[in-house]
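Human: We require from you a protein record containing the residue sequence and its fold in token form, and nothing else.

Assistant:
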Amino acid sequence: MSKGSPLPSWLNLMVESLPNLLWAGLIFTVPLTLLSFILGLLLGLVTAIARLFAPAPLVAVARFYVWVIRGTPLLVQLFVIFYGLPSLGILLDAFPAALIGFTLNIGAYSSEIIRAVISSVPRGQWEAAYSIGMSWAQAMRRTILPQAGRVAVPPLSNTFISLVKDTSLAAAITVPELFQTAQRIVATTYEPLILYIEAALIYLVMSSVLSALQVKLENRFARYGGFLEARA
């Protein structure tokens, strides 16, 4: 028991540290996750379209980008951006460096998902769109992407949930997000087991909430898809 508290010392420590951990998650972890995913998704869409429809030189560039990012560890990528680029005169603060690293990583992985789901749309859908006078861009926006998006929801949702946990790697480049905040508290309390378990539980709650939302979103898209198929 801690002096003056009815709670066990370990529980009292968890209660006292919880506001700091939640605040770090709200101020750094959540924005880093959302911004990285949105920007990475846009980058992934551009990369996927380049892989499928661009001239050969752009296809080669897109393939090279995906090959490099998927073939190297995310932690190494963050170190190259934050610690390596200064040797070339490119200085970045910790948060922008982490944002760039996670965006590039998500862009590469999501591009493969998007490329696959676009390729899965039957060729007849393109032909039907062209037959009613749509341009390539209109067919992509109005016909292909809505159908591909419904198929992409599960894998992209899994990517987003993984990203929430991967943001803990930003602690290695001094971003004061949830995990690094736990590390700082450990440095003053010398209670690594308790604090790291508490951080893990927060990540677990976040992932569980997102998983539940993913199921609801998938069910919604499934009903929507069934409605469209019934009308067809």
